[in-house]
Structure formats: structure tokens, C-alpha cells
């Protein structure tokens, strides 16, 4: 994992050095192992490297036939297999990221189709006057672009683009409202009107500083459900999981995993334990002294069953108050996910031991683990309901304009319904289109890369995803329990995981902690510049004061998301420091 950025100009002038300097400095945390550039007339590329594969000769930019040049953030897991399709003398490094230069030489703009991995790539072909920006189909790796005076800027993080001063540091109130209602934002829009996401699976062709063409590789291919029995499904699942974990372990540096003790991470541990001669390093977070379920004891039992080296960290109320400003500053493309707190602190600990961790993101989406999927299967007259039909602030009278916040989801639902599939598949596809890339994967990317740690997601491997998505609904949900076939496999592979225990969900006790200081937070949130722009300050203050006296689930979610947004706005719009605890940062004038 690395940081990539660049500037394609609309004319043949050289890109300003100060712009490239700014991009490089803004992405330095993503690449602590080296920085290099490529500059020519009309184009500048910047790469900050986190060295994982080919430590000696893998520095980027990489150069290919006919003068092509590439910078990449990510890993191409099937590079070993794909290299066999090309003459050995074509390769000058052992880097996995040299492969796209070869596939471009043979397939042109379709160069990403053979790639199995997580990636954001910029590939320039000066002879054709083209620059290609592409992103993996699930959007595991981020990539943003902005049309600005003189051309197009792109970068791994929007903050890098903003720091050039070529794009206004303003927000869209409509997108900010969507964030407060959903905790994430949808589509290729960002909260900054001048910056857009390269969509998951999308390849943009840029010419003379403008977007000339777009094409897209879907993450989930629509098709009929597979006809197979349970034993056949288990055999296919075992083969897919073991193969995915095997290629996701390809690394020239030490690796480990994040272990919650849940189904997904336990399944990854079961695979890793089989594939490694040495004990797997597994990291778990717990919340002592709170009402949240502490998963460390169960995770410890699972780790001991396979002889893993189990490393535990405690996430405390003090951590919440002291760490959240820095975490909000890390989340430049905002997602108000409370799991950022343990993820950030786990990464801080893990990087002391290794440079790569495997994570369980994607398991719930692909194997139907969420309760909302079970509701989606039921007819409306029998308790079925639309996913995310209510926002976090609905009914509280807080928003200045509460209309239209669900537009992005409505558009996604309509697009996915037109592609067909069962109601369950449509619900899964909707989550994979927005919730997964714009919340869960964004959270992992920013929280890990803030510490120079690479996160890998074996469940989002194309082979695993294709199998999981096309499994019969009855093998995903059975007797009201999600992830049936994955649980069945895990029960055989790792009995200590207690695979058929009821999923209790992962919670972070942020509402419990906020309630203790809600009255003190109330006036600070009410006078927040960001909050006042889209909310009624007096209603926000009343919400916090009431929450301090009597907590409720909805009010807890609302208070958390308002607090996160106020901290985020202070850092990324107002340009204020994130140094200090929550109260200090909000009190600063």
C-alpha cells in the first residue's frame, strides 16, 4: 500500500513543482519507505511507497514497453500466475505492480480486467496522450480526482488535493446531511463538491486534462443462483477461502491479522493457521469497564485453539476522548463509523510488530450476515422493510433540510433492481455498492495507513465473491440465521469458534461515554460552525442536554454522528488543529 497522486495538464507545460511537492507531503504517511516522481510535459506523477513486495527493486514509478509509466497503491495477488503469460525478459523487477504495464501492452484500456487484487492505479501512455485511472471492483483502495484550472488532479486522499489550493475547501450541505443520516455517503460524489471518487471498478481515460472515457468492471456479476447441495457448497467454499488467504499472504514482510472472535475473522484465522508454519499474530480489541460486550475472552479461546500468538489491547473511555480528534482528521472522506476508534488503535499496536494484516471486511455482505438481509427476504406484509429507510436524525427536528437525504440509496436500489437477482442478492449488492467502499473499507484504509500498516481483505477476492454471491439464498440464511454455509464450514474447521452461536454484533460504547459529558458538549456542538450550517443549533444543544439525563439508542447514534461531524469539520473545513482531546479541540476559538 502506498500513496499516489498526480496532475495532468490541459496543455504541454510542465506541472508546477509546488503542486507536486504539496501532493507528496500530504501523502507521506501512506508511504514511509520512499518517494519518487515522474515529470514530463503535461504530466506529473508522485508515489510514496510502503514497501511490501520486492523491497529492493520495486520502487515506483515503473516503466513499461513504449514508454508507459505506472504508479500504484495496492497489491496484485495473482501476479505470479499472470507473469507466466509473458516472456520473462519483459520484466525488470519482481514487483507485483509491474504486471499492469504488461496487460496494458496487450489489452489497452482493459488492462485491469485480469488483475486479482486491491488497487488504485495511474498508468500513463505518453505516445497515446492518455492517462488511465483505475480502481479495484470492490473499491478496497481509494482514488479521487478533481477538475481544476489547468487540468485534472488526482490522489489517494482528498486532503492531498485540497492542500494544493486548486480546489475550494467547501462542503455540500446535501452530502453532509446524507452523512449525518447514514454515517457514510453514496456514489462517486464526496462531501467536497469539487472532488469525486473514481468509482469501484471504474477506469477513467484522461486526455489533455479532461475525462474522455469511462468503463467499469462490476464487483458482483448478476447470474442465476448455483444449483448445488450443501456438501458441494462446502467443498467449493473451502477451496475458494484457502486459495484467497494463500494469495493474500504473499508478502516480503511480516503479516498477521485482526481477530474479533466473530465468524469472519475466525474463518480467516482457521485458514491462516493451516497455511503457516509459525504461529499467526492475531490482534484483538476490548472495552473494559463499559457495557459493550468484550470479545477478548472468546477471541483468546479461538486463538489458543490454533496456537496463534494473541495480542490484546484495551480501548478505554480515556482513549475515546483523547484519540477521536486525530481519528476524525484521518477520515478526510468522512464516515462516522464508531469502529474507527478500535481500528485506529489496533493499527497503532500492530505496526509495532508487522506491516500487513488480514481483515474480515466483506464477510457479512457476501454471506448475508446482517439482520437487515433477513428482513429484506420477508414480504412487506410480513414484516419486511426497506434497508435504511430511516436516518439517524429522523424525527428529532435537528436538520435544516431533511429532504432528499436518501436520494443516493434510491438511485442505487433502482439500478440494482434493474440488474435482477433475488431480493437478498439485491440487498447484498446495494451494500457492496456504497456501504462497503464508502464506510467499512474507507475506515480500514485511513485508520491503517495513518500508521503505515497495510490491510488486506480475503473475503473480497473475486473468486470468493463470485461463489458467495451466487450461492442459493437458503445456504446464506437458514432458520433466521445469516452466514449459514460459512458457519457450517467454520464449525468443522475450527470448533472452538462456536460458529452457530447467535451473532451479537460489534459495538463500541461511544454513546455511553458521550452521555457522561453530554451537558458539557451541548454548548460546544451548538456553536460548531459545521453543525450550524446544516442543523438548528438550539435543537442540537437540547438533544445533548436531554441525552445526558436519559440516554436512548436513537439519541445515542445522533449524538455520536453530530460529535464526529463537528470534529471532522474543525479539521478539514475550518483548518483547525486536531491536537488535544475532544473538549480542547471543540473549545478552541
What are the SSEs and their pairings?
Elements lengths: L1 E8 L7 H10 L8 E6 L2 E7 L12 E2 L5 E8 L2 H5 L15 H9 L9 E9 L4 E6 L8 E5 L2 E5 L2 H6 L9 H10 L13 E2 L4 E6 L2 E7 L13 H19 L6 E4 L4 H13 L5 E6 L9 H10 L3 E6 L2 H14 L9 H11 L5 E3 L4 H5 L3 H7 L29 H12 L4 H27 L4 E3 L5 H9 L2 H4 L7 H10 L16 H7 L1 H9 L2 H6 L2 H13 L3 H20 L9 H6 L2
Parallel strand pairs: 13-14, 13-16, 14-15, 16-17
Antiparallel strand pairs: 1-3, 1-9, 2-3, 4-5, 5-6, 6-7, 7-11, 8-9, 8-10, 11-12
Helix pairs in contact: 6-7, 6-15, 6-17, 7-17, 9-22, 10-14, 12-14, 13-14, 18-22, 19-21, 21-22
Question: What descriptors fit this protein?
Answer:
alpha+beta, 589 residues, 16% strand, 23 helices, 17 strands, 3 domains, Glutamine Phosphoribosylpyrophosphate, subunit 1, domain 1, Rossmann fold
Give a verbal description of the structure.
- The protein is an alpha+beta fold and 589 residues long.
- It has three domains: 215 residues, Aminohydrolase, N-terminal nucleophile (Ntn) domain (Glutamine Phosphoribosylpyrophosphate, subunit 1, domain 1), CATH 3.60.20.10; 254 residues, Rossmann fold, CATH 3.40.50.620; 78 residues, no CATH class.
- The chain is 41% helix and 16% strand.
- The strands form three sheets. A six-stranded antiparallel sheet has the order 2-3-1-9-8-10. A six-stranded antiparallel sheet has the order 4-5-6-7-11-12, covered by helices on one side.
- A hairpin with a 2-residue loop joins strand 11 and strand 12.
- Helix 9 crosses helix 22 and helix 10 packs across helix 14.
- The protein is globular and about 70 Å long.
- The relative contact order is 0.12.
Amino acid at each position: 500500500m502506498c500513496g499516489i497522486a498526480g496532475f495532468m495538464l490541459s496543455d504541454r507545460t510542465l506541472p508546477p513543482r509546488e503542486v507536486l511537492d504539496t501532493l507528496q507531503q500530504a501523502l507521506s504517511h501512506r508511504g514511509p519507505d520512499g518517494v519518487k516522481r515522474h515529470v514530463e510535459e503535461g504530466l506529473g506523477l508522485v508515489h510514496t511507497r510502503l514497501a511490501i513486495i520486492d523491497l529492493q527493486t520495486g520502487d515506483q514509478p515503473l516503466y513499461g514497453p513504449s514508454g508507459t509509466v505506472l504508479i500504484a497503491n495496492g497489491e496484485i495477488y495473482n501476479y505470479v500466475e499472470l507473469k507466466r503469460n509473458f516472456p520473462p525478459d519483459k520484466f525488470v523487477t519482481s514487483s507485483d505492480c509491474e504486471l499492469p504495464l504488461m496487460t496494458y501492452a496487450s489489452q489497452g484500456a482493459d488492462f485491469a480486467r485480469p488483475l486479482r487484487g486491491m488497487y488504485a492505479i495511474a498508468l500513463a501512455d505518453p505516445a497515446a496522450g492518455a492517462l488511465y485511472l483505475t480502481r479495484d471492483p470492490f473499491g478496497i483502495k481509494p482514488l479521487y480526482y478533481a477538475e481544476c484550472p489547468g487540468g485534472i488532479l488526482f490522489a489517494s486522499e482528498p486532503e492531498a488535493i485540497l492542500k494544493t489550493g486548486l480546489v475550494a475547501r467547501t462542503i455540500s450541505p446535501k452530502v453532509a446531511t446524507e452523512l449525518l443520516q447514514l454515517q457514510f455517503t453514496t456514489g462517486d460524489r464526496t462531501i467536497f463538491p469539487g472532488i469525486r471518487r473514481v468509482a469501484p471498478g471504474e477506469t477513467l481515460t484522461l486526455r489533455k486534462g479532461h475525462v474522455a472515457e469511462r468503463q467499469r468492471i462490476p464487483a458482483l456479476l448478476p447470474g442465476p443462483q448455483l444449483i448445488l447441495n450443501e456438501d458441494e457448497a462446502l467443498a467449493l467454499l473451502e477451496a475458494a477461502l484457502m486459495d484467497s488467504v494463500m494469495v493474500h499472504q504473499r508478502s516480503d514482510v511480516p503479516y498477521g491479522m485482526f481477530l474479533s472472535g466473530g465468524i469472519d475473522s475466525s474463518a480467516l484465522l482457521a485458514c491462516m493457521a493451516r497455511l503457516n508454519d509459525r504461529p499467526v499474530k492475531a490482534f484483538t480489541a476490548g472495552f473494559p469497564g463499559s457495557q459493550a460486550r468484550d470479545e477478548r475472552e472468546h477471541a483468546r479461546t479461538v486463538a489458543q485453539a490454533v496456537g496463534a500468538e494473541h495480542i490484546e489491547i484495551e480501548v478505554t473511555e480515556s482513549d475515546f476522548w483523547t484519540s477521536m480528534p486525530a481519528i476524525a482528521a484521518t477520515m478526510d472522506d468522512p464516515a462516522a463509523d464508531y469502529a474507527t476508534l478500535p481500528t485506529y488503535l489496533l493499527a497503532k499496536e500492530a505496526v509495532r510488530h508487522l506491516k500487513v494484516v488480514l481483515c474480515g471486511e466483506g464477510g457479512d455482505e457476501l454471506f448475508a450476515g446482517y439482520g437487515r438481509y433477513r428482513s429484506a427476504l420477508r414480504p412487506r406484509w410480513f414484516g419486511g422493510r426497506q434497508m435504511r429507510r430511516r436516518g439517524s436524525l429522523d424525527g428529532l427536528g435537528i436538520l435544516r433540510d431533511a429532504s432528499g437525504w436518501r436520494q443516493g440509496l434510491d438511485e442505487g436500489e433502482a439500478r440494482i433492481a434493474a440488474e435482477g437477482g433475488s431480493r437478498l442478492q439485491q440487498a447484498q449488492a446495494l451494500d457492496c455498492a456504497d456501504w462497503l467502499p464508502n464506510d467499512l473499507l474507507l475506515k480500514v484504509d485511513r485508520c491503517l495507513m495513518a500508521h503505515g500498516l497495510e490491510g488486506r481483505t480475503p473475503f473480497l477476492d473475486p473468486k470468493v465473491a463470485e461463489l458467495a454471491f451466487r450461492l442459493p439464498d437458503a445456504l446464506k440464511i437458514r432458520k433466521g440465521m445469516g452466514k449459514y454455509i460459512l458457519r457450517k464450514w467454520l464449525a468443522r474447521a475450527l470448533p472452538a469458534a462456536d460458529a452457530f452461536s447467535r451473532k451479537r454484533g460489534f459495538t463500541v460504547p461511544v454513546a455511553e461515554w458521550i452521555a457522561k459529558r453530554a451537558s458539557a458538549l451541548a454548548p460546544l456542538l451548538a456553536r460548531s460552525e459545521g453543525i450550524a450550517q446544516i442543523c438548528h443549533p438550539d435543537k442540537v444543544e437540547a438533544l445533548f442536554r436531554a441525552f445526558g439525563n436519559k440516554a436512548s439508542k436513537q439519541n445515542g447514534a445522533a449524538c455520536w454522528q453530530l460529535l464526529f461531524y463537528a470534529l471532522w469539520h474543525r479539521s478539514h473545513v475550518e483548518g483547525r488543529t486536531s491536537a488535544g482531546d475532544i473538549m480542547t479541540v471543540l473549545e478552541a476559538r
